[in-house]
Each structure stands twice: as structure tokens, then as C-alpha cells.
Amino acid sequence: MPAQLISGTELAASIREQIARRAAELTELGHQPGLAVVLVGEDPASQVYVRNKVAACEKAGFKSIMHRLPANTTQTELLALVNTLNHDDTIHGILVQLPLPSHMDSHSVIEAIAAHKDVDGFHVSNAGLLMTGKPLFRPCTPYGVMKMLELTGINLRGAEAVVIGASNIVGKPQAMLLLQQGATVTLCNSKTKDLKAHCQRADVLVVAVGRPNMVTGDMIKPGAVVIDVGINRLPNGQLCGDVDFESAKAVAGWITPVPGGVGPMTITMLLQNTIEAVERRLS
Ligand code: GUN
């Protein structure tokens, strides 16, 4: 039997409805959720991501402020903007889109964002809180993956979870979140020997590498849950994930499509984190 689809589009739509309702209640109380999105330079992919984030905010009834800065903006200028946003009470969340131009130090910029407004969850304080099991903000993509697993009813206790890709944005926080739900986690990276053997053990396989179709059906344990975080554009313009969908679907028990899988959940969890920031300020 082919795998069942986990539709991020459908799950995201239902969560966004709840978020919009909560945003309306908060707005009624005089606390409209506010998100500032900062884009430096002209990276085409970043422009699309940022546009989608701002549109999702507006649709949910948030105040959404977009700051577009030219590629030659100095780091001092960017830090000054972040500082202003840190002190703006109408802004609950600040997102500086990555990657930044090469003359900037992303680490310093992220550290300049007030940790209680760091809705990306990238600040070292938030990474540390996540690591110690007391997260303030969970990074949006791994948070979205966890939500998909929860809503699909996947039991993670004692499950073998394998994460491919050890980035700060996805792989590392994903491993922590799976661990906190009782999974036995293996975090694979580009030096991992015999990746296939690791994958074949996985009850839950999360792939976040950025390489088109690198995980194929023969690498997947029959019945496994396969979560594809990759979004790659092929030379013919088609979008595809890091998992070869057709061969994987024949073996897996559950699988996320690309597009329409993890992508819509990432933006949804950005909205969720912003709501959480408002509620934390009120509590
Ligand atoms: N670039 C790619 N993904 C992300 C993300 O989740 N947040 C930010 N700020 N930049 C990104």
C-alpha cells in the first residue's frame, strides 16, 4: 500500500484559522500581534520567502512591517534598525531573513535581536533554552515538523528517529525536539558513513539537506514516516524535495509532499511564535 500523505497545506490552513481567531481577540484587547521582517539585499529566494511571510501575517490579522534594506547596508545600520525594533512595543517578533550579504556577521546580528522577540528561535539564549528542555521559541521549521507529527498521531516514544542535515536552523533543533518527545535520535551530517544503513533503521526520517531526490525508496524502512524539509528547483523549473517522492511513497507509511508539505507549516509556526510572544508579554 502506498504511503499516506501528510498534507502541510491542510494542517497549516486549520492552524492558521485558530491563529487568526486568537489574533482578532488580542487585537480587540489592544494587543495586535506585530511582526517585523527585515530583508537585506536582493536574493531572489529570500524575496519570495519574505513576501510569503508578510502575506501570511496580514491574512492572519497581524501588523506586519517589512524593512527592505539595500545590499550595501552596513552592519552598523542593520544593528541600529534591530535596536529600534527591540524597543518598539507594537512589535512582538523580529525576523532578519538569512542569508545576509557576505560583509555582515549573521551571528552578531542574530544576537542583537532581543531574545524575547526572536521568533526564529536562532538566538543563543533560545538555542540554549531549547537544548535544556525549556524552549521559549522553537525554530519554525522543526516546530512545524513536530506539529505535523503530533497532528498525524505519530507516537515518538521509543521511536528510532534519524535526521539528515545538522544545520542550526533545522537539523540540530529538530534532533532536540524529537529527543524531548522520547525518540532515540541519530543526527547525520555530510561526513556520516553509510547513510543508507542509518536511514533504513529510521521509524521517523527527517531529511533537511538541500540536495534534490537524495533519499530514495531503497533507503527507507517499510512503513516509516518520511518528512521532507528540502525545497529544490530542478533545471526544468520544477520544485522537488530531498526525497525521491515516487520511490519513497511505495515504501513509507507516511510521507510529506513537496511542495505542500513542510513549507506551509514553517510560516504557520512563525505566526504561532509571534502569538506566543504576545501572550508571554501579557502574562
Ligand atoms: N532563511 C532560510 N530559512 C530561514 C528562516 O527560517 N528564518 C530566517 N530568518 N531566515 C531563513
UniProtKB/TrEMBL annotation:
Residues 6-120 form the Tetrahydrofolate dehydrogenase/cyclohydrolase catalytic domain. Residues 139-281 form the Tetrahydrofolate dehydrogenase/cyclohydrolase NAD(P)-binding domain. Pfam families: THF_DHG_CYH, THF_DHG_CYH_C. NADP(+) binds at G165, A166, S167, I231. Pathway: One-carbon metabolism; tetrahydrofolate interconversion. It catalyses: (6R)-5,10-methylene-5,6,7,8-tetrahydrofolate + NADP(+) = (6R)-5,10-methenyltetrahydrofolate + NADPH; (6R)-5,10-methenyltetrahydrofolate + H2O = (6R)-10-formyltetrahydrofolate + H(+). InterPro entries: Aminoacid_DH-like_N_sf (IPR046346), NAD(P)-bd_dom_sf (IPR036291), THF_DH/CycHdrlase (IPR000672), THF_DH/CycHdrlase_cat_dom (IPR020630), THF_DH/CycHdrlase_CS (IPR020867), THF_DH/CycHdrlase_NAD-bd_dom (IPR020631). GO terms for molecular function: methenyltetrahydrofolate cyclohydrolase activity; methylenetetrahydrofolate dehydrogenase (NADP+) activity. Coiled coil: none annotated. Its EC number is 1.5.1.5, 3.5.4.9. Keywords: Amino-acid biosynthesis, Histidine biosynthesis, Hydrolase, Methionine biosynthesis, Multifunctional enzyme, NADP, One-carbon metabolism, Oxidoreductase, Purine biosynthesis. It comes from the Bacteria. HAMAP family: THF_DHG_CYH. Catalyzes the oxidation of 5,10-methylenetetrahydrofolate to 5,10-methenyltetrahydrofolate and then the hydrolysis of 5,10-methenyltetrahydrofolate to 10-formyltetrahydrofolate. Belongs to the tetrahydrofolate dehydrogenase/cyclohydrolase family. Homodimer. This is Bifunctional protein FolD. The lineage of its organism: Bacteria, Pseudomonadati, Pseudomonadota, Betaproteobacteria, Burkholderiales.
